[in-house]
Amino acid sequence: MPGTPSSMTADPAAASPAEVRLRPATDDDIPAIMDFERIPEFHTMVGIWSEEEHRRALNDPDVQYQMILHGTGAAAGFAILRGLTSPHHSIELKRLVVGAPGNGQGQHALHTIVDHVFQTLHAHRLWLDVFESNARALHVYRKAGFQREGTLREAIYRDGEFHTLLLLSMLDREYAQLTSPA
């Protein structure tokens, strides 16, 4: 697949989506992160940062990068979390990118990230914004239990057009309800 990061396996669907796991990213992961951001199909949905912007964010105590890994250990994507030092315990899922969407890895990666945010980081609230036109991501977020809480009308100017963002969030008590045995 053109634009696929070199750290990915030749067949991303070969590993079961359920085998997705996280590990903290390091400076050595920045080239793969930048490759994921630059997959042509994601141009209108994913922000693109420079190496320096990633390096600054990666070393910011308020930010956490997580690499999304296949069961084989190969990089399948990444996530950026912000707000780790917030006294309000409100963490933003700034970016979630999975290199091969459509095979369930994004959904499993999101669940793993949500577990990490509420179980390990002890957040009260996890929030994100998503392009209104990103139907695939909206479906995955809603299916995971995120609630829509607002609209940022024409908040992003990209490629000569304004784009609307939707705000979604999940609270710790909603997460607990989703994960408690029935």
Describe this structure in words.
The chain has a seven-stranded mixed sheet with strand order 1-2-3-4-5-7-6, sandwiched between helices. It is globular, with a radius of gyration of 16 Å. By secondary structure, it is of the alpha+beta class. The N and C termini lie far apart (42 Å). The longest helix is centred in the middle third of the chain and has 16 residues. A hairpin with a 5-residue loop joins strand 2 and strand 3. The protein has one domain: Gcn5-related N-acetyltransferase (GNAT) (Aminopeptidase, 3-Layer(aba) Sandwich), CATH 3.40.630. Helix content is 27%, strand content 32%. The protein has five helices and seven strands, in the order βααβββαβαββα.
